[in-house]
Amino acid sequence: MPEGKKIKIIILWLILFSLCLCGCWDMIELEERAFILGAGVDKTAEGMFSITYQIALPDKMSGGEDGGNGGDGTINITVEGETLYDARNKLITMVDRVPNFEHLQVLLIGEEIARDGLQEFVDILARNYQMRRRTKVFVAKGKAEEILKTKAKIEKSTALYLSMLPQNNGKINEQITATVDLGTMIENLRADFDFMLGVVQLEEEEISLSGAAVFNGGKLVGYLFGDSLAGAQWLKGDIKSSRVIVDKPTGELNKAVCLMGNVKTKLIPFINGNKIDFKLELITEGELLEIYPANQIIFTEEQITGIEKAIETKIISLCRESLRVLQEEMRTDVLMFEEHVRNKKYNFWEENRQDWDRLFSQAQIDLEVRARIRRVGLTR
């Protein structure tokens, strides 16, 4: 091979090899990114978006002398804009790092925006490739900004605190609804299903996560708290562990406290012309925690059966209260009965989907509850 041709081949290989050594032209170093952990969206009096971004401070998030002070690992910045992107562009002018949403943990939606409707608001988020579909979504009862700017007692970020709270404590408290992420909410909105979101509010300047915000047609129509929320959790089968208190379960006892869980539900639809009714079978089991007076020994089958019957009556009462609110006051099916009918009775659902709110509100729902006490604890 001629010497000149060899040199040309070597030069060509060197050029090709040098291309492999080039760095990413659009790479942004970690220390040049502003990692946004939480976002709260409100509306101003003029109808503009007011967005509060909670940005991580990596040096403080990683520890240090102030590591024990909750909420000190972030900084909150509030900006206003006619659109979400307008607000984001204003944020860029206020920080010296590039905003990054890939670690977004929590999205807080202000009450006013929730009542106006989420369709257009969520459509914008769905188009943003940086938005995590696993981001947890909550409704702020009041202003989202006030909640994000309230320091958490334990975590270094309010957003991280809200993200972990339902995950750790939702299994033992029926007042904390099952977590809904951004992807699930988008699917519900596009399918035009009713749904619930957890409610965050300030109680005596402390952050509290309890209750459920009820959405119909993508708009907030009301809240479930207390017995009505507990009943909805039982009806959906979302109860992981619930303390049930019953009065006078037997002749010897004034009160009994049981921890119930392992819930299984079965929903059976009955179609009669253009009307639909349901039968819901619910099975749960648990253990006896407390009895009053405490000097009684629960041992006989008759005593245990009495407690089980009292638990069944209590659960039915909670479910009836929830159905009363959802069917009569809100006319909203957050129990996902519609989805069940779509899957099991598609032809009927397709013919009546536009009239589902009326069908649900007029449906007769027969409840059959079976409770079993598996453990009564140690007795002397």
Count structural domains: 2
Percentage of residues assigned to helices:
25-40%
Number of helices: 13
Uncertain regions: pLDDT < 50 for 5+ in a row? 65-70
Give the overall silhouette: elongated
Secondary structure class reads: alpha/beta
User: In percent terms, what proportion of residues is strand?
Assistant: 25-35%
Descriptive report:
The chain has two domains: 30-223, no CATH class; 225-375, GMP Synthetase, Chain A, domain 3, CATH 3.30.300.210. It is built from 13 helices and 13 strands. It has helices spanning 3-20, 58-61, 84-92, 111-116, 119-126, 144-148, 158-169, 182-191, 226-236, 301-330, 337-344, 346-352, 356-362, and strands at residues 33-43, 49-56, 74-81, 98-100, 106-110, 136-140, 195-203, 206-216, 219-224, 241-247, 255-272, 275-292, 365-375. The strands form two sheets. Strands 1, 2, 3, 4, 5, 6, 7, 8 and 9 form a nine-stranded mixed β-sheet that branches. It has a four-stranded mixed β-sheet with strand order 10-11-12-13, sandwiched between helices. Helix 9 packs across helix 10 (301-330) and helix 11 (337-344) crosses helix 12 (346-352). The protein is elongated and about 105 Å long. The protein starts with a helix and ends in a 5-residue tail after the last strand. Mean pLDDT is 86; it is low at 65-70.
